[in-house]
Amino acid sequence: xxxxxxxxxxxxxRSQMATALAERERDERGLDVDVVTGGVDPADSVHDEVxxxxxxxxVDISDxxxxxxxxxxxxxxxxxxxxxxxxEQFRPDGWHGESSVWELSSSDTRDQRDELAGRVExxxxxxxxxxxx
Length: 133
What we know:
Elements: E1 2-8, H1 14-29, E2 33-39, H2 48-55, E3 79-83, E4 98-101, H3 109-129
Parallel strand pairs: 1-2, 1-3, 3-4
Helix pairs in contact: 1-3
């Protein structure tokens, strides 16, 4: 099994969308992938506009809650994607997984959703092509 993590500062927007999109991609492709998410400074709740934007593409994240990412969460993660923070903020000693920084081109929630959908799809294409899932 491959394990992925999507992390941002508040775990109330970008990482929640990326996680939900990755779960959908995993399920559509029938892959054995575990997805975790968290934030370095979690918000109180997922932003309403994020829930609505995801609902527009038939993805329900209304029951999700932001949570703090911990070194224990990623001890066995193969790849961490960060958005607005650094893996160095929560990386456990001795962790040798891969990490990527995704900088998004817009601050608009729907633009971010659409950009993340494309990035997640491309990421899963790469994982499959490289035989990592």
